[in-house]
Design a protein that fits this description.
The chain has about 350 residues and is of the alpha/beta class. Helices cover about 40% and strands about 20% of the residues. The strands form 2 sheets. A 10-stranded mixed sheet has the order 5-2-1-6-7-12-11-8-9-10, sandwiched between helices.
């Protein structure tokens, strides 16, 4: 079975002009160029506005003033310098309201194939992007979400966009699709994939239950044997051999987020991919504290995969090939040309 090619035609990159947003823009820009996609950068002016030089809230408002809009335009113009330099077709939008609601609305309006955002906000307002916004966005967006946080000097620029992908699976239908996406992305970038299953049903050494379960070693071995067989079957079903993508399978016992972070660090992964709707341990991983552990601590981007609920698009939309996407209407564009 040959993996379905990755089609990324529309990328949304929310920004609060922070350092983490700049990192997210770098990855969004690299993906835009790789897939000749259309890039939209959106900034949401929150209804509670922080002071420019303070982490404390300065004022509460419900209508954007001309001064606020000018400041947002100036910040956006500065922020988009790398995009202008790369001569990438892009659209710019400034909205006002509750951040996560406006980002979801913007993604739906453009039928985004991918949302790329930083995990932290500027100054002391990290909760605007990590926590309240990210937690709400991941289960509500109808497309994959790429979160970009702390990194160790990695870049997705030439010659390689992504070379090592870690895909965590719990064998759910969405995890299967996440693996298909990982294989297709690996094929497009001549990358390698590690397919990981974390077994959490067996107590770890040191836990009270560890000493109360008789014959624990055989139990662990049996769980690992079953997981390895399922991993091999999943890799075969994803068409790894037909596509020429190298997939290494690993089954480990432990806490899901700890093992994902550990193995991603060991293998110097450029990307962690996890299905957004799983069952068992990974369901908690994506919608609880484990998700935030991975996103906060990963030293590479994390892609939370969700099957696209594709809306009907205009017949004028052409398939995106290897050339720059055509200009888009800028009804709400605030971009100033130099």
């Amino acid at each position: 079975m040959t993996p379905t090619p990755v089609h990324i035609q529309r990328i949304l990159c929310p920004t609060d002009f922070s350092e983490f947003s700049a990192l997210a823009l770098r990855h969004a820009l690299a993906l835009t160029r790789k897939f000749s996609a259309r890039l939209k950068v959106v900034h949401v002016v929150p209804q509670v506005l922080p002071a420019r030089d303070s982490v404390f809230l300065a004022t509460t408002w419900f209508n954007m003033t001309p001064e606020m809009r000018r400041f947002a335009e100036e910040e956006m113009h500065r922020f988009l310098a790398p995009v202008r330099e790369a001569r990438v077709d892009h659209e710019v939008e400034v909205r006002e309201g509750e951040s996560w609601r406006e980002i979801v609305a913007s993604a739906e309006e453009m039928s985004a194939d991918l949302v790329v955002l930083g995990t932290h906000g500027r100054s002391g307002l990290e909760h605007l992007f990590l926590g309240s916004v990210t937690e709400r966005l991941i289960p509500r967006l109808s497309c994959p979400v790429l979160t970009v946080g702390h990194e160790e000097g990695r870049t997705w620029e030439a010659p390689g966009l992504v070379t090592r992908i870690l895909c965590a699976t719990d064998f759910s239908p969405t995890s299967v699709e996440a693996l298909d996406f990982s294989v297709a992305l690996a094929k497009a970038n001549q990358a390698e994939v590690t397919l990981l299953n974390v077994i959490e049903s067996v107590p770890e050494r040191g836990e009270p239950a560890y000493f109360s379960v008789p014959e624990l070693a055989p139990l662990r071995q049996e769980h690992e044997r079953i997981a390895r067989e399922r991993l091999q079957a999943a890799a075969a079903a994803a068409g790894a051999s037909e596509s020429g993508v190298s997939i290494t399978t690993r089954a480990v016992v432990g806490r899901a987020y700890k093992e994902i972070l550990k193995i991603a660090a060991e293998e110097r992964a450029d990307l962690i991919v996890i299905g957004a709707q799983g069952h068992g341990p990974l369901e908690h991983l994506l919608f609880g504290s484990n998700a935030l552990h991975v996103i906060r601590r990963a030293t590479c981007p994390v892609l939370t995969y969700r099957p696209l609920r594709i809306k009907e698009r205009s017949k004028s939309d052409r398939p995106v090939g290897l050339t720059l996407a055509p200009p888009v209407e800028r009804n709400k564009s605030l971009e100033k040309q130099p």
